[in-house]
């Protein structure tokens, strides 16, 4: 059975038998070779193939067909009408489509990553997460879950801040006859947020137990999970001191705490504030 080779514009492919060629939609100008031909020719020059060709374009004639070879000769592009060469247009089209799909996929996932990393939750005046209408904006379910957990955790910090922020003193000096010196106030921040300002009320207590005077010591920018100290004024009277947190503000925690403030009954997040 005769075997045929064709050239697709980039390389030779084959061999194919006659039945296989029927399925390949050969054109008149398709370069082709089979045993018995010296050089490449075009499909319309092979008599048995004319019945399966789908174009009427006639290529120029090839010469020197007398010598028979068992292998196809080196292919050189024949010149066709309008100086156009045979090329696999379908493959180029498929490649361009795949490139386009790849670029769109990268852009799409890039937008998703950007949106998830730059999304900031919004809270109302009670510290509740404001739920965005899903019909207007699509919010990732996982991000929504994380934001809800963050809202609950921060509200717990604010409502129980006395358990997370403490004031204490160093080993200060005092005179048995009365007088406090070398006094430092230490504030410990056990939350996960920076505390921008903490005011500590320092009571200087007399030997009889009464309060001689009260001073306010302010400490700024206490890092999360750390403590920070500041010097307190000396006193010419008193044998001991008592330090108590009076107020706390934190922009990261959205908190404005004041121990002189009495929350209203039923408030779920009384110390929430926007700074």
Tell me what the structure shows:
The protein has about 280 residues and is an alpha+beta fold. The protein has four helices and 13 strands. The strands form four sheets. It has a four-stranded antiparallel β-sheet with strand order 2-1-3-4. Strands 10-9-12-13 form a four-stranded antiparallel β-sheet, with no helix packed on it.
Quick tags:
4 helices, about 280 residues, four-stranded antiparallel sheet, alpha+beta
N- and C-termini, Cα separation: 89 Å
Enumerate how many helices there are, as a single number: 4
Main sheet attributes: strand count, strand direction, barrel closure: 4 strands, antiparallel
Mean pLDDT reading: 81
Biggest sheet strand order reads 2-1-3-4
**Share of helix among residues?**
10-25%
**Approximate shape:** rod-shaped
Number of strands: 13
Low-confidence stretches: none
Secondary-structure element series: EEHEEHHHEEEEEEEEE
* CA-atom Rg in angstroms: 44 Å
Our estimate of the beta-strand percent is 25-35%
Class inferred from helices and paired strands? alpha+beta
């Amino acid at each position: 059975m005769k075997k045929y080779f064709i050239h697709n514009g980039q390389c030779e492919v084959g061999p194919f038998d006659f039945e296989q060629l029927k399925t390949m939609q050969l054109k008149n100008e398709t370069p082709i070779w089979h045993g018995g031909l010296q050089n490449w020719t075009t499909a319309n020059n092979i008599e048995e193939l004319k019945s399966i060709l789908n174009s009427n374009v006639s290529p120029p004639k090839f010469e020197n067909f007398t010598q028979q070879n068992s292998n196809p000769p080196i292919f050189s592009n024949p010149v066709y009408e309008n100086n156009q060469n045979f090329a696999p247009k379908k493959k180029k089209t498929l490649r361009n489509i795949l490139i386009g799909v790849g670029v769109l996929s990268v852009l799409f996932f890039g937008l998703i990553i950007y949106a998830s990393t730059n999304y900031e939750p919004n809270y109302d005046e009670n510290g509740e997460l404001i739920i965005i209408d899903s019909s207007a904006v699509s919010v990732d379910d996982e991000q929504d879950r994380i934001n809800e957990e963050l809202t609950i955790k921060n509200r717990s910090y604010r409502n129980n801040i006395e358990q997370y922020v403490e004031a204490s003193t160093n080993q200060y000096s005092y005179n048995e006859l009365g007088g406090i010196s070398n006094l430092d106030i230490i504030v410990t921040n056990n939350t996960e947020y920076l505390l921008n300002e903490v005011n500590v009320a320092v009571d200087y207590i007399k030997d009889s137990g009464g309060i001689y005077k009260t001073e306010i010591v302010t400490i700024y920018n206490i890092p999360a999970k750390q403590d920070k100290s500041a010097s307190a004024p000396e006193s010419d009277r008193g044998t001991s001191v008592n330090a108590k947190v009076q107020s706390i503000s934190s922009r990261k925690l959205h908190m404005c705490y004041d121990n002189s403030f009495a929350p209203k009954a039923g408030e779920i997040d009384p110390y929430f504030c926007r700074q």
